[in-house]
Amino acid sequence: MSAPQSIADSEFNLEDTSVGSTSLQNSGMLSRQQLFHLFHLFKHEIDKPAVKKRIEDAVRDKQEAVAVTTEIQEELLLKMGIDPHFGIACLGKVNTVYENDGELMVQFYDFVNQEEMACDEAELGPDAYSEKIQYQQKLQEQQLMMLRQMRELSLEDQRSILKALHEEMEQGNYENVSAVMTHEQIQALINRK
């Protein structure tokens, strides 16, 4: 089996981001534009069949899928002229540095979700991954229905519902909690007030 092809060796082409002989950025914080660019590149790269195979091969070889997605991010950062370790450290600070930038935070969470989905796809296999996707879609539909119901309620009732959901999530240590209330649960909560 040959070594997996890295992004640096592939046909991947970045416009005017070649490193050349210049030094790599290793201080400050990644700019908004750099982060958007990285998110775009990662989304483009993670969907390629060769990259999916690279992650699957790593999982088969008992490596962590997230280690491979991190390598991919490091390769992209290097192509962008950013020290990979510095860039990864910056990704860990996005939540605090850009917490008030709604557009960037949406893109960041999409980026994180893409990484998680790529890892899940490699680790679970096609059948279990498909089941997980179907479950998530059903959950999203339930959440959307709940939000539609909440729109018809007063702000005070909405706050009560969100508080109850938050408490439920805390009790479950934020794991395996659906963050959804049925119409009946919403009505029961409102009637208790």
SSE layout and pairings?
Blueprint: H1 32-46, H2 49-60, H3 65-79, H4 84-91, H5 94-97, H6 102-151, H7 155-171, H8 183-192
Helix pairs in contact: 1-3, 1-6, 2-6, 3-4
Question: How would you concisely characterize the structure shown here?
Answer:
With 193 residues, the protein is mostly helical. The protein has helices spanning 32-46, 49-60, 65-79, 84-91, 94-97, 102-151, 155-171, 183-192.
Shape: globular
The number of strands is: 0
Helical proportion, percent range: 55-70%
Give the strand content: under 5%
Q: Mean of residue pLDDT? A: 86
Biggest pleated sheet:
none
Unreliable runs, pLDDT <50, ≥5 residues? 1-19
Q: Could you state the order of secondary-structure elements as H and E? A: HHHHHHHH
CA-based gyration radius: 21 Å
Q: Please work out how many helical segments DSSP would assign.
A: 8
Structural class comes to: mainly alpha
End-to-end CA span: 65 Å
Explain this structure to me?
The chain has 193 residues and is mainly α. It has a domain of 119 residues. It has eight helices and no strands. It is globular and about 65 Å long.
Keywords:
68% helix; mainly alpha; disordered N terminus; 193 residues
